[in-house]
Amino acid sequence: MARSKGSKIELTAYDDLFETDESRAEANLSKVREIPIAEIDEFPDHPFKVLQDEDMEQLVESIKQRGVMTPAAVRQKEDGRYELISGHRRRKACELAGLETLKCEVKDLTRDEAIIVMVESNLQRSTILPSEKAFAYKMRLEAMKRQAGRPSKENVSPLGTHLRSDAELAEKVGESRNQIQRYIRLTGLVPEILQMVDEKQIAFRPAVEISYLTEEQQYTLLEAMSYNDATPSLAQTIKMKKFMQDEKLTNEVIQSIMQEEKPNQKEKPVFKDERITRLIPRSIPRGQETDFVVKALTFYNRHLQKQRGQER
Predict the structure, then answer these.
(1) Is the dihedral of CA 284, 285, 289, 290 positive or negative?
(2) Helix, strand, or coil here: 73?
(3) Alpha-carbon dihedral of residues 243, 248, 249, 250, nearest 10 degrees?
């Protein structure tokens, strides 16, 4: 069949035709370079903590002996500096080891692409705090929505699967959609309560319910927890949320709910100091411990006054 005069024959570029896997690997290696640590900026709102623990000490020793085995990932910013995408622990370890440069692979990524890579690389950690997952999932989900350019109401996949963004994220990270949304709810907690979740002082599900309360209500709850030396159960937090939704959650209601006795709750001593609790007889009824201590101190003070009188 004759080819029309206007048609063009597209030829494969010479370099592309003879490019091999080895040459492509060499091209990628050319993006790996030693970059001064002083020129590398932190990733904005990076949700993962860099702890100076035993693992960090081992990483520092490894870098001192063998250097950085796996390059960190960075992207170059418009001002010529670099933004760290993955390798925050390696960067800190290099600083502690006294090094001035960090082996990095420079990646050509947009802001949202960088967020997705940053979250993916850090989710491989063996230990991840609830707060870290919460902010990481939130950042990645928002980046996925912006990257796909889908309206928030429709929220469908551009690939024609009609999956919600959170469903796509659920498939990628191996968590249910509901669990991802529960983690993201934790970003609504005040810092003090979120820290209690990380330290396992407050269970995950009650923390999710607490996140629906206003900031003022959460701080009132924090005071009630301190006063009652107890954290709320799931049932108690659900009750608070219901009162809040009915616009009836006052400071008094929060205190009243926190003072409720929980099923199977172990009795806690009125006094935390064991030097006091071990001196209170077991025969003293619960709730009367303070009265017993006051009477004992009154008797002791009278004894001291009597002694002073005799010494005169």
Answers:
(1) negative
(2) strand
(3) -160
* pTM, two decimal places: 0.66
Edge-to-edge strand order for the sheet containing 72-76?
32-36, 101-106, 72-76, 82-86, 40-41
**Token duo for residue 13:** 């570029």
Q: In this predicted model, what pLDDT tens digit does every residue of 53-63 receive, in sequence order? A: 888 999 999 99
Q: How far is CA 305 from CA 81, 163, 214, in A?
A: 75, 80, 53
The pLDDT value given to residue 155: 42
Q: Which residue, chain included where needed, has tokens 């003293």?
A: 284
CA angle 170, 135, 233 (to 5 degrees): 85
Q: What is the Cα 20 distance to its own chain's centre? A: 43
Other Cβ atoms less than 10 A from the Cβ of 63: the count is 20
Instruction: Please give the single-letter amino acid code of residue 69.
Output: M
SS3 content of the chain, % helix, strand, coil (to 5): 55, 5, 40
